[in-house]
Amino acid sequence: MSFFNFASSLCLITFSLLLHAVSGAGPNSHFCSTPDNFTANSRYESNLNKLTSYLYYQSPPTGFGKGSRGHYPDQTYGLALCRGDVSTSDCKTCVVEASSEIRKRCPYNKAAIIWYDNCLLKYSNNGFFGQIDNINKFYMWNVHVVSEPGPFNEKTKELLSQLANEARATPKLFATGELELGNSTKLYGLVQCTQDLSRDVCKKCLDGIIGELPSCCDGKQGGRVVSGSCNFIYEIYPFVNA
């Protein structure tokens, strides 16, 4: 059973699915643990403080960090992941903000996760490295619908599946790509996994969320499925022929 107190998927409407974060933008979503809590000034809180400090120093140079602090029953595990195309500076800014904001929103929860456009931060009193997290998940989509949803859905799935194969073969487990649709438009896609996953498990995670396209984003001009272990983004963009 999930240690998070939100439903397994939270659908969020966005009028413009921006791929690049706006400075000062708040989190896209967050989940807090239940019923496991800790008390102020406890050993668990001390370990959690040490862990989050470690993550915002370790993560920016490579875009990913994971670790644990303490010993059972006060051990805490955590990771931070920045989007694969953000700068070291933007990564650090996001992870620092995420570390602060999640403690405000989930002050005494032993487990929590928070997502921004540029990063995610997750921690728990239970070890989770290497495991697909499909429980903590949310959707976002563009409110505009394409004129021919069927063919568009197939093109979207085709692009994202291609990117999933590419991401599997990269150290960052990250890939982006474009597909021309005609009529002066193109389809942009991005996929990424947390780097605690193996390549095969990353591919399995991405295949799973790509399979949720009909539930999330049927015919929508843009959409995201974001879980605790992997995510994708796609959106139509206008372009000018050279």
Automatic annotation (TrEMBL):
Residue ranges of every copy of the Gnk2-homologous domain listed in the record: 26-128, 134-239
Alphabetized UniProt keyword annotations: Glycoprotein, Repeat, Secreted, Signal
Signal peptide: 1-24
Short name of any one Pfam family annotated for the protein: Stress-antifung
GO cellular component: extracellular region
Subcellular location: Secreted
PANTHER family in alphabetical order: CYSTEINE-RICH REPEAT SECRETORY PROTEIN 38 (PTHR32411:SF43), CYSTEINE-RICH REPEAT SECRETORY PROTEIN 38-RELATED (PTHR32411)
Protein family membership: Belongs to the cysteine-rich repeat secretory protein family.
The protein, known as: Gnk2-homologous domain-containing protein
Organism: Salix viminalis
